Amino acid sequence: MQQSNILDQVFRLKAIAEIGLLYSTNGYDRERYEELQQISYQMLQQVSSHDEATLKQYFPLAKDYPTAKVDIRGMIITDENKIVMVKESLDGKWSIPGGWADVGYSPKEVIIKECKEETGLDVEVLSLLAVFDKKKHPHPPQPHYAYKMVFHCRALSSAIIKGHDVLEVGFFNIHALPELSEERILKNQLELLYERVMRGEKDTYIE
Description:
By secondary structure, the chain is of the alpha/beta class. Helix content is 37%, strand content 24%.
């Protein structure tokens, strides 16, 4: 079994244990959920080679019902059919603008804000291109279960002003993509998104 599949199962086990601990009022049940929780940390230890104390820092106990995180990205395509991309400061690789959803902002407001902060571009949101479930794609293993929402955006301005949290802003042909930050976006996802824009598809690709 692939490591990513094992991690998915461990995270699911951990979530079940912590949901049980949040809502259980029976002492016997709590003992069983605590045992499941301990097993999930032991399994994470074996897969990651980190000690339990470190894992508990990265994967703290749930204080509310565990839910998926939402990663919001913007697909901006120029008049020359090039994709606007940003070089991520965390790994030095490229992605389309975006980040985690912010509390207090709608998804459209998040991507408008992220595009402005990372590229300097003012954009309008044209459509929701896709909602990806990251576990259905070969992203590197990550601590969070996440959905990815990708919006088709049109630039309303042209001046590029690189944000402080990215290294560069670039324009790339779909057939000559740079090294991708695969935690954030994959080549097959970009190709799917690009083709949907080129074909003028209006419905949303949903997994």
